[in-house]
Every structure is written in C-alpha cells, then in structure tokens.
Amino acid sequence: MMSQKELQKYAEQDYKLVDPEYIKQLEQDSKKLIKFKKYSILAAFIAVIVIAVTLPLLRALLTNLLN
Fold it and tell me: How far is CA 28 from CA 16, 53, 59, in A?
C-alpha cells in the first residue's frame, strides 16, 4: 500500500501530463461534433421528406410514359 505522500506525488505527475490546450481542443472538437450531428439529423430528415414527395410523382410519370 502506498502512503498518502506517494499517492499525492503520482497524482501531481499525472495532472502535469494533461495539457490544458489539449483539453480546450477536445472541448472544441466535441462542440463541433454535436453541431455536425444536429445538422446531419436535419439533413437526413429533409432527404426523407424529399424522397417521400418525389416517389409518387415519379411513379405517375413512369406509368404515363409506359402507357
């Protein structure tokens, strides 16, 4: 079992290994990913609506062309 002093020393070493700039970059990246996720869901929703609207039109057009 390590003493409290040794544990504190290792904790300080581990803390020094994490760069604050790296943490800021990770936070910015996560914000960008969240924004991208929102817009990708919106784009998929719009694509589904467009396909649902155009399929009956294409079906009517094809049946008129084939008859």
Answer: 21, 38, 46
The residue segments making up the domain with residue 59 are: 4-66
CA dist 3 and 63 (Å) reads 83
**SS3 category, 3:** coil
Q: What is each CA distance from 41 to 9, 34, 36, 54, in whole angstroms? A: 47, 11, 9, 20
Low-confidence ranges of the chain (pLDDT < 70): 1, 14-17
Percent helix, percent strand, percent coil in the chain, to nearest 5: 90, 0, 10
Indicate the number of domains in the chain: 1
pTM of the model: 0.53
